[in-house]
Input
Amino acid sequence: MSELDKAGTESRLTEEDFAVYQLIAEGAPPPNGYDVGRLLALRLIDADPYSPGGYIAHDPRGAAQGLTTRIRNDLQRLVDYVSQIPALERLADHWDPHRLYGGPGSEYLASAAQMNARLGEIGAAAASEFCAIQPGEPADRDPAILRLGVERTRTALQRGVTVRSIYHRSAHEHPQTREYIEAMTADGAEVRASTLPGPRIVLIDKRHLFIDNHVIDGGEGNSGWHVFDRAAVMWVRAVFDLFWNHATRWADLCRTAAAGPLTQRQWRILRELDAGYSSQQVGPRIGLSRRAVDKELAAIREALGCATMYQVMAWYGRSNKDESGSS
Output
């Protein structure tokens, strides 16, 4: 701690200090009971080695210059300390994995403009993956904004970023949204649809999460949060995978709409059978009882005019041949 720090706010000279300094400069001792600490800290005086209890006055201009020098030195030390911060933060990479610090946690984005700006900034720098859930019913949007979204997605895909999005099932019946999704999938994005209610989220690189506002009462309707606590982000990433695994592939949804005879649940059962699961295993995987699965299989055979499940799966293989490589 420097002398200036020790003196603290007590270094400020008072009218009494001015009067005492004048006495010492004239060769007189300070009055009894007077604290000379402020004058000593500012180096306006020093103890007189040849006169016990006496003091020697110094030129105030020299004291001012000395004070300036000390302040500069203190500032330089502070600058040196601050310059170490990036190096200290870089050491976090070597922190024991079981002690990984997840925060700091989040920032509140009080408007749609702020949300879009931060999302655009983080999304433009995405390096590995971009995941999103858009659970609401689709609505017409500004075509210019949609074109910008397509271009952003295309640019990310060209950088090697994996893009996965989940939309509400009704998106297939909304021409503008369907056209937008088909443009994305043509560029390599993966899209699925779901009728399950879910949160609106955007996940980027397993490090950034954007969610609606559920904290600030009275916040703007499109306000939200940018979360970057690692534990919270990775938990939501696991939730996204649950929704993804239970959603319908966009290509399958299109086939279902075109094929007509089968329901989405029936298509799901056939996909599970095609993946190698037995009819006994399908039920627990998709949340149906064994009886419900058997009932659906009977309905499938009737809808397709097939006598056996072998014929059904042969029909499924022919219907699915163009998508055999999708997941």
Remarks:
- The two ends are 65 Å apart (CA to CA).
- The longest strand covers residues 162-168.
- The chain has three domains: 3-83, 106-249, 260-323.
